[in-house]
Amino acid sequence: MSRILLVSFFVLCGLLVHLNLSAAGGFVDFETGYTLPGYNDVRIPGDVGTDFSLSQELKTDTAPFFRLRLGFDINSRHNVSFLYAPLRLSAHGELDRDLDYNGVTFPGRTPLRATYRFDSYRLTYRYDFLETGETRFGAGLTAKIRDAAIGIDGQEFTEKTNTGFVPLINFNFQWRFNPSWELLIRGDALAAPQGRAEDVLSALSYTFNDKVRGRFGYRILEGGADNDEVYNFTLVHYLTAGVTASF
Q1: Nearest of 111, 109, 143, 113 to residue 125 by alpha carbon
Q2: How far from each other are the two terminal CA atoms of the chain, in whole angstroms?
Q3: For 55, phi and psi rounded to 5 degrees?
Q4: What is the value of pTM for the model shown?
Q5: Which residues are paired to 216 by β-bridges?
Q6: Rounded CA gap, 225 and 196, in Å?
Q7: How far is Cα of residue 6 from the mean position of the Cα atoms in its chain?
Q8: Three-state DSSP string of the chain
Q9: Is the pLDDT of residue 185 over 80?
């Protein structure tokens, strides 16, 4: 993963040089809050494993989260950013049937503990097509690295890991309906025959001054894949608060 981060850093630097670094204004964005589990359906291997739910048949706990984004606004319309978004969920309980998971069989009524990890590293470029005094709209591309794992611990422990590249469409909409307040809708999303991914934030943002903005809102993370190796579709709700500091 360190090589991925290093390559992403050099790509980001290259884009900044190409778009005129002297005109760039940097920002740091921090977001935190709590996750509320939706569905989390799993079958591993995807062709012969047992179908089960981490959220309906096991109990998935709510959990805190954080996200960190570093970026640059260039020439008022170009935006380049790097996001680190880790996610950890824990579940526990037992099934009323045998569970065949990742080559291991857990007998029915075995107390189980499950861990769900979904870490996301994203490099995004966006261009704002519309920019007026009250409204801003833009779209672009996100290169996402997914570093995921689902582990089951019962009489023994097994874990399925999955790391891969996912291209996404990025979008951003801001409507300033008040000198200090604006509606913010932004995210990354894409669907394909192999699976889908959506990560969308809807929030109200408050401008404290020309350097600091705060927000609160709701985020949805949904998606998954269906193939012979992995079947997993997950929905996570986020109650969020964040702050953006410009420099």
Answers
A1: 143
A2: 28
A3: -110, -25
A4: 0.90
A5: 204, 241
A6: 7
A7: 20
A8: CHHHHHHHHHHHHHHHHHCCHHHEEEEEEEEEEEEEEEEEEEECCCCCCCCEECCCCCEECCEEEEEEEEEEEECCCEEEEEEEECCEEEEEECCCCCEEECCEEECCCCCEEEEEEEEEEEEEEEEEEEECCCEEEEEEEEEEEEEEEEEEECCCEEEEEEEEEEEEEEEEEEECCCCCEEEEEEEEEEEECCEEEEEEEEEEEEECCCCEEEEEEEEEEEEEEECCCCEEEEEEEEEEEEEEEEC
A9: yes
Give the pLDDT band of residue 2 (cuts 50, 70, 90). Answer: very low
Q: How far apart are CA 26 and CA 81, in angstroms?
A: 9
Give the chain's domains with CATH numbers. Answer: 2-87+114-148+164-246 (2.40.128.90)
